[in-house]
Structure formats: C-alpha cells, structure tokens
UniProtKB/TrEMBL annotation:
Gene3D superfamilies named among the record's database cross-references: Tetratricopeptide repeat domain
Subcellular location: Cytoplasm
Organism listed in the record: Seriola lalandi dorsalis
GO molecular function terms noted in the UniProt entry: heat shock protein binding
InterPro entries to which the protein is assigned, alphabetical: CiliaryAsmbly_MitoImport, TPR-like_helical_dom_sf, TPR_rpt
Protein's GO biological process: protein targeting to mitochondrion
Protein name in UniProt: Sperm associated antigen 1
Annotated signal sequence range: none
SMART domains in UniProt: TPR (SM00028)
Amino acid sequence: MSADAVFSLQNQSSAVDYTGKVPVEHLDYDYIEKCKDVKYLEKILKVLRSGDEGIYPHLIKFCESHLHKLHPRSPALRKENLVATAASLSKDEWSQIVDDFLQTWQEETKKTETSLKQQSMFDDLVKENMPPIRGSNCSIPLSRVKVVSIDNIPYPNVFHSIFRFDVERECEMIDGSVVKNDPPAIRITGHSKIRTKVDTSLLTQQEKLFLANREKEKGNEAFRSNDYEEAVAYYSRSLSIIPTVAAYNNRAQAEINLKHWHNAMTDCQSVLKLEPGNMKALLRRAALRKHMGQFQLAVEDLRMVLMKEPHNAAATVGDRSSEAC
C-alpha cells in the first residue's frame, strides 16, 4: 500500500488514536511529508528515536525537519545540552575558558584581600581604644601606661596617712626603743597564710614595678600594726617581683623585731650587695653582730657609718656601747 493510500484512509477514518501503536507503514518519508498532525508526528519521532522498529538516522532527521516546519517550538525537538568538558571543546575554546576563570579568581582574591586589610586596620583601631577584658592576662604596653603619683590621689585622711607612712622613720632606731608619735594600728590576728612569691611571667616591667611597690606598702601597713610576720610575708612578695633596697631593709627590720637574727643578717647582706655603704643596712648589721657576739665586726660596721656620717647618733652610741663590752 502506497503512502497516498494510507494517508487517504487515515483522513477517511475517525480521528487518529494517539494512545495506540504507530503502524510500520507510517514510518515512511512520503507519509511523514504529507502528515500535518503535529501530535502524531511527535509520536512517530518518538518511535523512530526509540529504535524499536530499527535505526533510521536520516528518517529521524527528516521527521525532525518536517516537525520543525509545522511547530518550531515543539517539545519533541528539545535536546538536552550536555555539560561541556575539555574533551567536548577545542583546545582554543578550553584555554579561553580557563584563562577567564583564572582572571576572575584573581580579581575576587584581590578584592577579598583588600577587604580583610581594611577590616584588620579597623579592628586594630578599636582594640587600641578598648581596655583589656577583666580577668584576662592581657598586658598594657609601656607607652600606654599612665603613672599616677600617690600624692595626687585625693584619698581620705586615714588612707593618705597610711600611704605616706614612712617605715624607715619607724625603724630608725633598730633596737625598737623609739617613741612613736602616732598610736599603733590595731593588729588583726588569725589571718590566712600569705604566699610569699608572686607569678609575674605575664606582666610588663611597668606592671611589675607597680605591683612590687603595692606589696611593699602592704608590708608597711602590717609593720605599723606590729604584725611583723605578715609584714615579712608582704616584703617577701615584693622582693619576689623586683628586689629593691627598701624592701630588703624593711624586711630585715621586721626580722629583727621577730628576733630572727640570721634571716635579718641575710637581708642586710643583700642590701649591701645592691648598694654598698647603705647606712641603715650597716647599722642593722652592726646590731645583729652585737646580738650574735661578733663585737669586733659590729665596731667595724659602726665606724664605716661614722666615716660617712660623723654625727650619726645611733652609730656613736652603738660604737661606745661596743667598746664598753
């Protein structure tokens, strides 16, 4: 049966059954060319593409071309675009894609780097004007530390007198016979044991100086209240931070009041290593040597004091008492 006969029979019959199977006779150039039913042509194209009735590449292209003339936007003509790969592209096309990608990546990287630098500068500016977090181990640079004199702080009179208390004046007479003008402070007993060493590994030099002076002032306050054991503890804390002549001298006097002769002698020797010829250390060492029965050595210390201060009353009295012995 020819294509014309088949097509005429189709026109004489009822509407085409799109759900049924496409007859083999319809898979023909002449039939496809004369067919104007878009839906039926789409069904024929589907059968041809499936390969159930054989593989006909040229017939498939012919059917697609005819369908495109009737309905260019037919869903059956849509083809999936495969992902482009290096194998599916020419060498020049692939090189162009790679170059474009690298250029875009470099531009984005530069923008990100510039943004991070600006953010870092902003963070540094904010941190510069913000104090360290309380409880952290942050340290303040020396250039930003403002040293405030105690004399400029408007303390009440009771605190001001404590800060201005001169333990050296109280210890002027090492035998403890000096009469104090101010009444002694109340001694607080039963205090907990104080650690005699302070960890300063995370502190700056300026912070160490401040902390050492503060611990020494605590020792002075304890000394004034006649709590010599606590005074020794605080002086020891100050010395563990930064060894100073004043702290050694003050601790030596507190040890003398506790009658810890050897400890006091060690502190006097430490003072004289730091500052040879220190008058107070020589006087205290002379007193210690007298208590320890080293009278000749005590006389030598007193005479060293008199060579520098001929009118020193404590040295003069001590020299005479040593000679009397």
